[in-house]
Amino acid sequence: MLTENGQVLSCGSNSFGQLGVPHGPRRCVVPQAIELHKEKVVCIAAGLRHAVAATASGIVFQWGTGLASCGRRLCPGQTLPLFFTAKEPSRVTGLENSKAMCVLAGSDHSASLTDAGEVYVWGSNKHGQLANEAAFLPVPQKIEAHCFQNEKVTAIWSGWTHLV
Asked: At which residues are the RCC repeats (predicted)?
């Protein structure tokens, strides 16, 4: 839940750290405040076992370990970035040169829409939802503009295993 003041609250299952409260109970029925480094949040999204948020300054945070098992299976021997294994908000690396306006989460993937109309995607690509040939993207990758007929993207949505 995102309040009008930009604070994020979470409740429900925390089995994979998806509530962003690292030392909280495995199940929480009272919404808990999530600390995002004093940043005001403007957009949030929840996947199966992870969540993402974009701040007013355009920084993207992710938490919950749900994508890590998929990443380890599909990228054996490769070290995953910290944001895949964090049980509290962790900055998504690879987006430092962009300003996120919106984030989304599917069951095992995430995406970010920038103020320049660019779409970055990461996580599982099992169903081709990341517009890429790789089975798993451990770092955010931009979907090339030609995929959008070179138009600026103004909105994105995610289903369980697809993007629109």
From this structure: 6-57, 58-116, 117-164
